[in-house]
Design brief:
This protein is α/β, with parallel strands linked by helices. It contains 5 helices and 7 strands. Strands 1-3-2-4-5-6-7 form a 7-stranded mixed sheet, with helices on both faces. Helix 1 crosses helix 2. Pfam families: Abhydrolase_2.
């Protein structure tokens, strides 16, 4: 299908290990939020299980000036958060995954926009991704062709968000609250007082979730 979203740049990815050390190991791909870049979530890598190869990718779009960094899809204008743009970015991301790795186990960790794209990628190819971690993000409204297959597979998904997060619109939180339990093996937590960010407690919970996924491999 035609794309308004450009491909991901394979030269700006942050990897936790050298290419020769990646074979046979599970891969966790990090997808940053709006206005950030590939360095942002990569700071979490030292706190994640050592068994994982971690790769942090850069979103393909530049937000309007003066916003810094990069974005996965527009959130401004009349078509802000258009589900079509989320799907396009997710398909571009899948293209990068297919080109960048032959790992048999690929999990996703996204923050905010990146979390929405991660979940959309799982919906586009339910059998491609082993699990997803949704931090301060949401499930994109609308139906996709493989949603029924996803509901049968029910991949593990961790969803963490804060009670003081005023960035994600409430209707998207409400939609995700209904949609995720129907399509995934959902775990997660609502963190009292947390804003649109990641806390130490949430990071500890993410590590526990990842360790459980590694045990099940």
């Amino acid at each position: 299908m035609p794309h308004d979203t450009p491909p991901l740049d394979p030269t700006v990815v942050q990897w936790s290990v050298r290419p020769e050390d990646r074979a046979g190991r599970p891969l966790l791909v990090l997808l940053h939020g709006y206005g950030a870049d590939e360095h942002d979530l990569f700071a979490l890598a030292p706190y994640l299980p050592d068994a994982l190869v971690v790769a942090s990718v850069r979103a393909p779009l530049s937000p309007p000036f003066p916003a810094p960094g990069f974005s996965w899809y527009p959130i401004e204008g009349l078509d802000g958060r258009d589900p079509r743009h989320v799907t396009e970015s997710a398909s571009r991301f899948i293209e990068w995954v297919d080109a960048a790795t032959d790992a048999t186990t690929v999990g996703l960790l996204g923050f905010s926009q990146g979390a929405a794209v991660a979940l959309q990628a799982v919906r586009l190819e339910p059998e491609r991704f082993a699990f997803a971690i949704n931090l301060s993000g949401y499930a994109t409204p609308g139906d996709l062709p493989h949603d029924e297959a996803l509901a049968q597979l029910r991949p593990p998904v961790f969803w963490g968000r804060g009670t003081r997060d005023d960035v994600i619109p409430s209707f998207l939180v409400a939609h995700t609250t209904e949609w995720l339990p129907e399509h995934a093996d959902l775990s997660g937590r609502v963190y009292d007082g947390l804003t649109h960010s990641v806390s130490e407690q949430e990071l500890a919970d993410v590590r526990t979730f990842l360790e459980k996924q590694l045990e099940s491999l």
